Amino acid sequence: MAELLIDRAALTRRMQTRDVTVVDARPASAFAAAHLPGAVHLDLFGMSLVDTRPAPLKAFEWMVHHLFELRGLTRDKGVVVYEEDSGMRAARVVWLLQLFGHPDARLLDGGIRRWRDEGGPLTRDAVEPAPGELAVERHPERLATVEDVLAAIDRADVSIVDVRARAEYTGELVRAARGGAVPGAVHVEWTRNLAGDGRYRPVGELRAMYAQAGITPEREVITYRACGTTSARGTSGGTGSISRSSRPPETRWRSTHRGPDRAASCAADATRAIGSRERREQVGQVGRVGRVAQERRHAEDLLQ
């Protein structure tokens, strides 16, 4: 699979050869103020799904696919998505394109902020895209449903990662049906993946950070937050090779998808993990039967 991050110089070369569609995932007002030349606007931030059973999930994916086609996205041309920095809106679009099996979907590392700082051209001229046909080769391994999360609780070969703010993880700040975290989930806020300039941190730093957190190549990782956006930041790594990546090589990343999108940045995601021994011990104090029922109810509440 193609690398998932692209810098200004590489994107400029691809724009000159016209073999790429550039997507601006910011709010419409930001797009109208200034955007990359030739970019089309697509803000999916307000679209969400609270039920990952097959029928509603299929309907949601159909709507997203239709919007992609209206913006002229096809498998024949690469897609580069950006927002202000390496944020949640852009990462979510990249992740959805991965779910649909697009072979060359990338995120502009550092976003329009880095593009502007490096002297990249901007315009206010809008381009009306010609609709395209986007063939789908769905990759279900990119998505974790509620059932997948419930089945993963207590599995030694899976890390469930909460990428929200610390206060949400501890339950001090409640933005779901109930406060707290999925039982056994470890916490690494998505912002730890980024450097001060809005780009992903160098791969060596990220590899060390996740190694310290207990994320190893043989483990599957499921990421979540109160919506499907921030968790996308962590899964945008997928199983592909990226030069500035937020995931260890060969680790399998999946993102949960749920509920109303909230701010804080998910762009693809941003997700990672540290093992919370204390949390496991607290959960383990209850009897096995009661604990399973308790965990199931809690996980369902958090993921609805």
Structure, explained:
By secondary structure, the chain is an alpha/beta fold. It has two domains: 5-117, Rhodanese-like domain (Oxidized Rhodanese, domain 1, 3-Layer(aba) Sandwich), CATH 3.40.250; 141-302, 3-Layer(aba) Sandwich (Oxidized Rhodanese, domain 1), CATH 3.40.250.10. It contains eleven helices and ten strands. The chain has helices at 8-17, 28-33, 54-70, 88-99, 111-117, 146-152, 166-170, 203-213, 232-235, 277-284, 288-302; strands at 5-6, 20-24, 40-41, 78-82, 105-108, 143-144, 158-162, 186-187, 220-224, 252-256. β7, α7 (166-170) and β8 (186-187) form a beta-alpha-beta unit. The radius of gyration is 19 Å and the shape is globular. 43% of the residues are buried.
Give the arrangement of secondary structure elements.
Elements: E1 5-6, H1 8-17, E2 20-24, H2 28-33, E3 40-41, H3 54-70, E4 78-82, H4 88-99, E5 105-108, H5 111-117, E6 143-144, H6 146-152, E7 158-162, H7 166-170, E8 186-187, H8 203-213, E9 220-224, H9 232-235, E10 252-256, H10 277-284, H11 288-302
Parallel strand pairs: 1-5, 2-3, 2-4, 4-5, 6-10, 7-8, 7-9, 9-10
